[in-house]
Amino acid sequence: MTLAQRTLTLEECIDIALDNNISIKTARNNAISAKAGYTQSKFNFLPSLSANASHNWSEGLQFDQTVGNLVNTTALSGGGSLSAGVTIFNGFRNVLTMGQRKLQYEASLQTIKSNIQVTEAQVIGSFLDIISTNEQLKIAIQTLDLLNDQLARQESIERAGTGSMEQVYNFRAQIAQQKLTKVNLENQLATSELTLLQLLLLDTTQDYEFAGVTSNDAQLEQEVEEFTTIYERAESFSPSLRSAEISMEASKKALKISQYQWMPTLSAGASWGTSWSSNFVNVLERDPVTQAPTRTEVADWSTQFEANERKGANLNLNIPLFTRFANRTAVQQSKVQYLNAELNLEQTKNTLINQVQQAYLNLVNAKTSYAAAKESLVNLNTSFEFSKTRYESGTIDFVTYLQSLNLKNGAEFQLVQARYAIMLRKLILDIFTGELDPENSN
Question: According to CATH, what is the number of the domain 6-46+90-263+320-440?
Fold first, then answer.
């Protein structure tokens, strides 16, 4: 192993995938957005408050709001105001919206878990495919070494004049075939490693080793629980099922919101404001005859703000009489969305039971295959040792010896495949039932 190589375990691969997976990151971002929406729905019950300030320049004929006169001059004016409003009743839309946003947030959390489930299953499948192929490659290399030893022995016998070139050529042909098997397995291993590295979003130009997964006969031969027991656990845990159920409830809230849009809205408000103007003046002198101002000065801001102060309050009732059928259309669309949510829930249930049934059947079949392959390998190993001894003593021909070797190799491959198939299917069922979920660990 070079210095650049890094050995990854199954647990490390899962952790890397969960950290790097874009679907999971997107789901987490969606959950943050859903949480913000839920928080805002709570704040919708609070009153609104706003402030306004202005400064204006105008010239020519105009009506000065501050002094209440029509003037023809250059003027500066300004003012400020505060206003507040509160919704007293809006057809329970705030209450229903808060409930809907809460459900949407809960559904987004379940979507994260569902994406984690999918990613874990993909990583486990790819990882065990690498380990299984690597084990088969080791068997192929051992067989190739055995054939090379047999070839060297046969060539030695032929050189001594007691053998035949036919046997030598037979071994060379079988070695060439075994080399092809080895190359095919190496290519399959490289493809499997590339698939896993791409799934983990790691640099595929770097070298990685993958640690083997240990298992014993007791674990591999452990009796499988009843399907109904496993499915009940999977159904109670399934994040995708929880998400579909919660999303349907959120759609139901949305339908009620659209139905209540026909109800009246009652709101209240209050305001305070003041203003100033360069046309607002204090009279210093008047004409004694006409009493017209002869000398004035612009009143200071504090005087104007106090003199021009205004307050107000309002109560507003809005009754939707005709909205160009917008409310009716909204109800129709909400009904369709609710029906689709029901269908999505039904589809999610069907998908879950199909996935669990398939994984369960695959596990049972893998255990049956493992038991048969294990028994077969014991017998074929014994048979091959006899065939090897008899071939070396010259009592059987090369074809019989080769048949025994191929049968033994086939049984070894089948045993490896069955062993890792059991581990894969068991881990897949553990994912479905939540056994691998950190929140369920003791």
Answer: 1.20.1600.10
